[in-house]
């Protein structure tokens, strides 16, 4: 799959995930704290949705950053290194983000 | 006519994209504190729930809407090959960004004023 197709596919997913995220978490605006977040995050379905959201965000952000950076002449010679950097950053970001999502447990 | 508009759209989409990537990194740092427990999470979240950051959220909202609507416009133009509608769809994206930033921004402003 070509990079721009991956970016567009993740963009379509993000429109859905982001709309859901904004509705459940930000509207109407309220003071956010752990006790409010845990009501939703204690449900496994929300953990799964947020992990899928995280994956779409990382793919879109890293593919976009790669496209922006490789448009710069100075960086365009380093495409291969940049691609590997994006993959590593993506994997680290995914593990960190997934661990964060899974850390939302009701205190025992 | 579209050349300059097209460049403006390209420039703004990239500018908002870079801003959103920077926001994403900060957002992950803030939310990542959940791994250290509820107290650490609440403390870090409190740092970004000040009126300054709430106002910045309105700018973030505008960036998200523009990036999303302009991106959807680009997908529609390319997939359905409707290049003759590029300019009018860009105007629609700008109008929708403005409207939804107001719709989302006013409750945030009221929330700040109510303390």
Strand content of chain A: under 5%
Give me the strand/helix succession of chain B.
HHHH
Radius of gyration of chain B: 18 Å
Strand segment tally of chain A = 0
Task: Give the count of helical stretches of chain A.
Answer: 5
Please tell me about this protein's structure.
The complex is a heterodimer of chains A (108) and B (115). Helix content of chain A is 81%, strand content 0%. Chain A has five helices and no strands. In chain A, helix 1 packs across helix 3 and helix 3 packs antiparallel against helix 5. The longest helix of chain A is centred in the middle third of the chain and has 27 residues. Chain A is elongated. Chain B is mainly alpha-helical and 115 residues long. Helix content of chain B is 87%, strand content 0%. Chain B is built from four helices and no strands. In chain B, helix 3 packs antiparallel against helix 4. The longest helix of chain B is centred in the first third of the chain and has 31 residues. Chain B is elongated and about 55 Å long. Chain B starts with a helix and ends with a helix. The interface between A and B is medium-sized, with 32 and 27 residues.
